[in-house]
């Protein structure tokens, strides 16, 4: 059986903004971060710091950054392939950090995409590229043209990461959704509390009183200000997609991480884990939206998640057809588990029949579009 991993990352630290070290290490003073930024460029120094620092956040942050020190995206992709049988295929999800509030990108996003195309040329069958869209980049029409350009250049789908600072119902995404529905283009959108978030010094007013391209009857969105890391949970709630789905009910959309967060013990949250998880599950089983999926990326490292998912599969077998396999490589290395331990452990937890659905049958349906036919 061919394995499809529907959620991976191969970007390096060169693809991130100048202040990226604040993720995972934000508890440190700025002068320490600046020092680390210089030292961490040397792998041996990063490994030494990993041994000396005792805080769990620091260990997680540096584990993540060590992979990012690999010289090229191709090298990261080759490392990922080593964990899987020959012929496995990987959905690669880039991120555009230009608007996250941590300074300028070291490498422009367009150049990053060009480099990914080179990876695709080296691994034409195994590397399935998605293109990240941030509505703040351009107008509604131009954002559609941007997506069309890369689909025509061999990309297979669209990536969204709303905690970077935008809502799914942003008016500048409407034509992107129209294209995606017309051509059955798959979209993977982050749906979990925690992770990367908008880190600007102040929350823009548009975050607090956002406008939707298809507002629910009589409804207006109003949110109270909070610390960035907490406030950005508003961007991921599955209900934020209702405006989108009411207008584009046949949209092929995957809720990454199944709404399951792994931060219950770390900080105050706006929503309870169960609320997001159950919200995603409710949408998956809603017959009005036949092309919705969820992936299990990152969440699969948590045995509580695997247990809950397996129980839900047994209670409602129809749910088995709405979930796809993914790991979130290389983000999950923060949990000190190898890729093999993650995917083989989950495979054993759910059994071979369910794993076949999640890692082969369902991805083939999800990924097939006017631009790519999965096999």
Q: Topology, please?
A:
Blueprint (H helix, E strand, L loop, with lengths): L3 E5 L13 H4 L4 H10 L3 H10 L3 H13 L4 H9 L7 E4 L16 H14 L4 E6 L7 H13 L4 E4 L13 H10 L3 E4 L14 H4 L19 H4 L10 H6 L5 E4 L16 H12 L7 E4 L7 H13 L7 E2 L14 H12 L1 H16 L8
Parallel strand pairs: 1-2, 2-3, 3-4, 4-5, 5-6, 6-7, 7-8
Helix pairs in contact: 3-4, 7-8, 14-15
The CATH architecture can be named as: Alpha-Beta Barrel
Count of discrete structural domains:
1
Weakly predicted, low-confidence segments: 52-61
Rg (C-alpha, Å): 19 Å
Helical run tally: 15
What order do the strands of the largest sheet run in, or round the barrel if closed? 1-2-3-4-5-6-7-8
Overall CATH class: Alpha Beta
Mean pLDDT: 88
Q: Under CATH, the topology is which?
A: TIM Barrel
State the secondary-structure class: alpha/beta
The fraction of residues in strands falls at 5-15%
The major β-sheet equals: 8 strands, parallel
Distance between the termini: 11 Å
CATH H level: which superfamily? Metal-dependent hydrolases
Helix proportion range: 40-55%
* Topology pattern, helix = H, strand = E: EHHHHHEHEHEHEHHHEHEHEHH
Q: What features would you describe in this structure?
A:
β2, α6 and β3 (127-132) form a beta-alpha-beta unit. An eight-stranded parallel beta sheet has the order 1-2-3-4-5-6-7-8. It contains 15 helices and eight strands. The radius of gyration is 19 Å and the shape is globular. Residues 52-61 have low confidence and may be disordered. Helices cover 40% and strands 9% of the residues. It has a single domain, classed as TIM Barrel. α7 (140-152) runs parallel beside α8 (174-183) and α14 (339-350) packs across α15 (352-367). It is α/β, with parallel strands linked by helices. The protein has helices at 22-25, 30-39, 43-52, 56-68, 73-81, 109-122, 140-152, 174-183, 205-208, 228-231, 242-247, 273-284, 303-315, 339-350, 352-367, and strands at 4-8, 89-92, 127-132, 157-160, 187-190, 253-256, 292-295, 323-324.
């Amino acid at each position: 059986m061919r394995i499809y991993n529907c959620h991976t990352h191969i970007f390096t630290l060169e693809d991130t903004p100048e202040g990226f070290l604040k993720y995972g290490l934000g508890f440190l003073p700025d002068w320490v971060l600046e020092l680390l930024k210089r030292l961490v460029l040397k792998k041996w120094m990063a490994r030494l710091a990993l041994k000396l620092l005792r805080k769990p956040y620091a260990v997680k942050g540096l584990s993540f950054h060590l992979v990012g020190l690999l010289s090229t995206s191709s090298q990261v992709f080759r490392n990922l392939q080593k964990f899987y049988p020959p012929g496995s295929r990987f959905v690669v999800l880039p991120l555009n950090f230009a608007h996250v509030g941590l300074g300028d990108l070291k490498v422009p996003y367009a150049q990053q995409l060009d480099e990914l195309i080179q990876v695709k040329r080296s691994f034409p069958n195994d590397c399935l590229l998605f293109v990240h869209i941030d509505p703040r980049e351009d107008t509604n029409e131009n954002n559609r043209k941007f997506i069309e350009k890369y689909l025509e250049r061999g990309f297979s789908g669209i990536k969204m990461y709303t905690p970077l600072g935008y809502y799914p119902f942003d008016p500048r995404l409407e034509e992107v959704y129209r294209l995606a529905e017309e051509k059955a283009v798959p979209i993977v959108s982050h749906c979990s509390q925690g992770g990367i978030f908008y880190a600007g010094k102040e929350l823009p007013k548009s975050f607090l009183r956002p406008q939707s391209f298809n507002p629910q009857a009589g409804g207006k969105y109003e949110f109270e200000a909070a610390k960035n890391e907490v406030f950005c949970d508003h961007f991921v709630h599955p209900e934020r997609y209702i405006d989108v789905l009411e207008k584009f009910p046949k949209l092929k959309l995957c809720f990454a991480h199944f709404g399951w967060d792994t931060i219950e013990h770390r900080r105050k949250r706006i929503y309870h884990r169960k609320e997001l998880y159950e919200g995603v599950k409710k949408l998956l089983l809603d017959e009005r939206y036949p092309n919705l999926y969820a992936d299990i990326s990152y969440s699969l490292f948590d045995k509580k998640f695997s247990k809950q998912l397996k129980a839900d599969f047994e209670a409602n077998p129809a749910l088995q057809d709405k979930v796809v396999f993914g790991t979130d490589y290389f983000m999950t290395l923060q949990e000190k588990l190898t890729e093999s331990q993650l995917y083989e452990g989950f495979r054993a937890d759910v059994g071979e029949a369910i794993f076949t659905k999640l890692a082969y049958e369902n991805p083939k349906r999800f990924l097939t579009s006017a631009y790519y036919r999965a096999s």
